[in-house]
Amino acid sequence: MVCAQRGYDCVICMAEPFSVERRRLMRMLGAKVIVTPKAGKGTGMVRKAEELCATHGWFLCHQFETEANWKFHELTTGPEIVNDFKGKKLTHWVTGYGTGGTFHGAGKALKAALPDLEIVLAEPSAGGGPAAGGAAGGAGGGGGGWGSG
Description:
two-stranded parallel sheet; 40% helix
């Protein structure tokens, strides 16, 4: 979204199991999407992103390794959920798994505010995340996205 807003070219590598909707959204925002084979899972898309960056001199965002990812969710998403449930009983929070930033950051904020809260991590069986045997780099997940400009 930052690339679209600032007019930067953006190329995203996504493993084949990632949803068609996710690919469409990235393309709608102006990104070129490169789909990597299912067999490579998250590691394959990271390797392809690294290869393309090395070849073309592009910037690699390292969104899966940066602490800014989960820290942003700790400061924003987690407190927003707590605020939305103020005065209500929240016993469980179920979240999906992508980079791991929401799970890690929002989960940390939620547990600080609601220590008895149960956090459940969900992913599709073909999602390429931890349950499916996918890569888990940094805060979690595996993948690559970068912008040039």
